[in-house]
Amino acid sequence: MKKALLQLHLAVFLAGFTAILGKLIGLNEALLVWYRLLITVVSLGVLLLVAKKLERIGWKEMGKIFGVGFIVAIHWVTFYGSVKYANVSVALVCFSATGFFTALLEPLILRRRLSLVELGLGLIAIAGIYLIFDFYPQYETGILFGLFSAMGSALFPIFNKQLLARHSPKTLTFYELGGGLLTLSLVLPFYLSWYPADYYLPTLSDWGWLLVLAWLCTILAFDLQLNALKKISAFTANLSYNLEPVYGILMAFVIFKENEHLSARFYQGVALILLAVLLQMIRVYRGTKTNVKI
Question: Is residue 127 part of a domain?
């Protein structure tokens, strides 16, 4: 059990570190994601072929998987856009709007009853983001990117849930990221015309950080999470992943000294978001104690 918890928290730490890498890699956000996908898909494909664990999937199903892959690609592009047009701390705070978008979109897509409690908690998080948005107008583009990223983060598990019931996680990840790579390649020229890049080929430093991002923060983090889930509950895993923004913001404070440029209004916004997360954690915990599905 201790090993599983250690694996889980290492996976959460690596997830938080991706925002730091977005700042360290000088590439335009779309190019950054394109190279991340390229390295990850090639590496994961080789691993699956060597292990002989790559499944064949029909074209109809592949279309659905590629659609989810495109959502992942857009989510990553907008997340790193938020990092670059604002900063790591603001990007991670905006990521907390995922709960609001999940509460709003999941009932519409899956045609189930809307939870007013979940929507209310999501609105508390949105109020926290508004406080930051109102006080930091120079981060407007970064905050808008962050909100689009949160929407993508909410949509991914909704559409991915049914696919996971039919395919193994590793194979599904390979095809989804492959779909993300293909669809992003088609969109990339248009995106770069709207948000031009300073340069197109990674520097030596960029390559080093991209390998860390693809191998450690994508493939390794994915494996650690899966292994941990064999021993611990999904509730514990979801609870632990609430620490991702906390880890990321603390690292940004240490590495980039971002705390020196943030005012009391930022912390007030963060406090509202943490309140929403805490109330949801208490709600889920009580639901598990009384066997209520939440």
Answer: yes
**pTM exceeds 0.85 for this model:** yes
Q: What is the token pair recorded at 129?
A: 């983001």
Angle between helices 98-110 and 140-164 (to 10 degrees): 40
252-275 per-position pLDDT tens digit: 999 999 888 777 878 888 788 778
- d(CA 32, CA 272) in angstroms, rounded, equals 32
Ranges assigned E (strand) in the chain: none
Give one word for 36, left, alpha or beta, with left for phi > 0 and alpha for psi -120 to 50: alpha
Q: Is the dihedral of CA 174, 179, 181, 182 positive or negative?
A: positive
**Each residue's pLDDT tens digit, 45-100:** 999 999 988 888 888 899 999 999 999 999 999 999 999 999 998 899 888 788 78
Query: 269, exposed or middle or buried, with CB in 10 Å at 0-12, 13-18, 19+?
Result: buried
pLDDT at residue 180 tops 70: yes
* Cα–Cα dist 54/259, whole Å: 45
What distances in angstroms separate CA 275 from CA 194, 196, 215, 225, one per listed residue? 37, 38, 34, 26
Q: Which two tokens stand for residue 174?
A: 């390979």
Amino acid at 37: L
Q: What is the span of the domain harbouring residue 264?
A: 27-209+242-289
In a domain, residue 294? The reply is: no
With respect to residue 267, please indicate whether it lies within any of the assigned structural domains.
yes
Structural domain contains residue 119 = yes
Q: pLDDT per residue over 223-239, tens digit each? A: 887 777 667 765 566 55
Are 257 and 29 in contact by the 8 Å Cβ rule? The answer is: no
Angle subtended at Cα 249 by Cα 243 and Cα 253, rounded to the nearest 5 degrees: 140
Domain count, the chain: 1
291: left (phi over 0), alpha (psi -120 to 50) or beta: left
